[in-house]
Write the structure tokens for this entry.
Amino acid sequence: MAIRALRAADVAFVPHQYPWEAHGGTAASARHLGVDEHLVIKTLIFEDERKRPLCVLMHGDREVSAKNLARQIGCKSTAPCAPAVADKHSGYQVGGTSPFGLRTRMPVYCERTIAALPTLYINGGQRGFLVAISGADVVRVLAPTLVDVAT
């Protein structure tokens, strides 16, 4: 679904496959690709106090402050979804979640500094598969709300 969405939006991307490691996270993918972990972008599925899903994009070497996220988007609280719930909302398996081609329509929030990256690596829709694209293309295709929630 992610690759179809990128092609439909006419996004230039470079595919990168690597051996996925359970619990390896962005550190493992950055190591396999030989890139800075800061350039590997996590796609996280959160939910607000009403259990409404939202997608959050964050640098691989940073964490999301759920409290700051809730404050910036006008919610009482936000928290990461349980893996099974995240899978249901996104249509992807945790570890292979892409913000492109999400099953459930949901708002997308992106750490502000990601938008300025000339090249970043983001999940292409399956474990062990990242695509290199520009931050400008992420903003153009997803139209995310830019936030400052990194810790």
Q: What stands out?
A: Residues 2-147 form a domain with the YbaK protein fold (CATH 3.90.960.10). The radius of gyration is 14 Å. The mean pLDDT is 95.
